[in-house]
Design a protein that fits this description.
The chain has 262 residues and is mostly beta strands. It has no helices and 21 strands.
């Protein structure tokens, strides 16, 4: 009859042998914790409890899932690479990474979300929505509320421009970087109006609502070009002006759209 050998063992969870229990290189097992121990004569340690700190080039990890309570780090500029048959799936997100790129699993194709944005059809080359608003991208054209934009920007519905109010002063500065619709009130015997922070390399225009301009001597420091090369007379009530430039503010063209509006 064959002789049966058994390791020293315990079926009580959490019990760890001591150096008094096992000799050097002797084995002991806790069958409840499923842990194997040995001793080097000085201390008892668990076998197979070390950490994987590096995987050498050309090698890989196979088998079941890798679980860690720490952070899995990837060296800078190396990334996580899938081979021709490998696939990485990000649990509960629908994102799948493989040799051809990053994809969305069909199960999640209409439910992928990030903060308040929901991306439909898994690609911004089609459509996506933010909140209850629809944004549609087609052949490089962007449509807002329009499913088939035929120009670079096509809006179905109304849109608004925030009014920039300039405090009553005799030196009115139109900061073009702050908007396209300005309301200013002239104050003092002389009023100078300047334009600053003009966008470069693009066409730009703005509307100026000027109140109380006729009570002052108005000087346009940017020297706009006016119809018939004549600056308009400013009223003491409210006037509306429109200005455009296509060279970063080197040349301004202006017109008094409305005069003496009451």
């Amino acid at each position: 009859m064959a002789t049966r050998f058994q390791l020293k063992r315990s079926s009580v969870g959490g019990v760890v042998p001591t150096t008094g229990d096992i000799a050097v290189a002797e084995l002991a097992v806790n069958v409840t914790d499923r842990k194997l121990y040995t001793s080097d004569g000085t201390a008892v340690f668990q076998l197979g409890s070390g950490s994987v700190t590096q995987v050498s080039t050309g090698n890989g990890l196979t088998g079941g899932p890798i679980t860690t309570t720490g952070t899995v780090s990837v060296l800078a500029n190396s990334g996580i690479i899938a081979n021709s048959s490998g696939t990485f799936v990000f649990a509960n997100t629908g994102l799948v990474a493989n040799a051809t790129g990053l994809h969305v699993n069909s199960t999640y194709i209409n439910t992928i979300s990030s903060n308040s944005a929901t991306y439909a059809n898994a690609s911004i080359s089609n459509t996506f929505t933010v909140g209850t608003s629809g944004y549609f991208v087609s052949n490089g054209n962007l449509g807002l509320g329009n499913t088939a934009p035929s120009t670079k920007l096509q809006i179905s519905g109304n849109y608004g421009v925030v009014e920039v109010v300039i405090a009553s002063t005799n030196n009115i500065n139109i900061n073009c970087a702050s908007g396209n619709y300005f309301y200013a009130t002239a104050n003092g015997s002389a009023t100078t109006i300047t334009f600053s922070s003009v966008p470069a390399n693009t066409g730009y225009g703005f509307i100026l609502i000027l109140a109380n301009g006729g009570s002052n001597t108005v000087t346009w420091s940017s020297s706009p070009k006016w119809p018939s090369a004549t600056a308009p007379t400013v009223s003491s009530n409210t006037d509306v002006f429109t200005f455009i430039t296509d060279d970063g503010g080197t040349t301004w063209r202006g017109v008094q759209s409305m005069k003496d509006v009451r």
